[in-house]
Amino acid sequence: MIRHREVIMRGLTVGAWSALLACGLMVWTGGSARAEDSPKPKTKKYIALIHRPGQKEEVESTFDLNQEKSSRELMDLLNNGEVEELRREREINILAISWDLGLWTVVVFVLLLLVLRKLAWKPMLEGLHRREATIREAMEEALRARDEAQRTRAELEKQMSGAEDKVRQILDEARHNAQQTTENMIAQARTEIQSERERLQREIGMARDQALQQIWNQTANLATQISAKLLRRQLTPDDNRRLVDEALAEIGQADIGWKDQLAL
Question: Which of these, 54, 45, 48, lies nearest to 84 by C-alpha position?
Answer without folding.
Answer: 48
